[in-house]
Amino acid sequence: MATEEGHSELPPDRTWRRPTAFGNHRVKWAVYVGATLFVLWSLVSLLADVSLGRLLTGVNNGLLLLEAMVPPNTASENVDRVVGYMGETIAMAFVATFTGVLISLPIAFGAAENIAPRPIYYLSRGIISITRAIDELIVAIIAVKAVGVGPLAGIVAISYLTIGFFSKLFAEDIEDIDMGAKAAIDATGASRFQALVYAVVPQVAPRFVGLTVYRWDINIRSSTIIGIVGAGGIGTLLLRSFERYEYDFAALILLAIIAVVLAGELFSAYVRRRVQ
């Protein structure tokens, strides 16, 4: 039926509805309800033994712990120990970042779908998936069992984790390059390696620097944690302080960790701003 303006009215079954990724709205609401019920079931099953008294006891214990930490123990011998272990932590992060990035480069280029042959692509993607599948503390425990307690285990663990992180992100950056430059280089009769050096590398070099610094920043934080399982660094000293009930010394260690992580974050942000 035509309206006064001369336009025909839409039939009722042609009313516009916002599109949904679930195919139809019934499936969408079924997914929403199912997800909500699952979350509620998880909360009930996991918090079934949690009571108000337990929460109040935990708050009271936390306050007592904070009271024991303040003020931090800044005796000269404690400061010297913290500085020594923190130096070891930073060195672990540097060595692990260098080693991990060096190993990651060929994997990243192999995992870029637009430049790698199909068999190498699948192999590289499989390596990335495997290295990203295991948490850092589990890798650190395995490394401690393999090479013994100390910074070497920490370097092995952090390098392993760097491979999965760096390779995945760098491969995605390579896939986003302008392939026109590579096609132009290929048209001159250049080899695959020459096309890689002159067409691909210049486009991803700034991103490479930014990712490297960002991963180094993450590795500093990781190296402060894995010492808890014996993989060297300041985490080892932190664990000992808690085991000996030296909470004021633990507070000094935590302050040192916070200071180093913040300094690394500021440096990382500055470098990434400069190169990008």
UniProtKB/TrEMBL annotation:
GO cellular component term of the entry, any: plasma membrane
Annotated transmembrane regions: 29-48, 90-116, 137-163, 218-239, 251-271
Residues in ABC transmembrane type-1 domain copies: 86-268
Gene3D superfamilies per UniProt: MetI-like
Membrane topology note: Multi-pass membrane protein
Alphabetically ordered keywords of this record: Cell membrane, Membrane, Transmembrane, Transmembrane helix, Transport
Pfam families: BPD_transp_1
Entry's localization field: Cell membrane
PROSITE patterns: ABC_TM1
UniProt cross-references to InterPro entries, sorted A to Z: MetI-like, MetI-like_sf, PhnE/PtxC
GO MF term set: ABC-type phosphonate transporter activity
Family designation: Belongs to the binding-protein-dependent transport system permease family.
Protein known as: Phosphonate ABC transporter permease
Native source organism of the sequence: Halobiforma nitratireducens JCM 10879
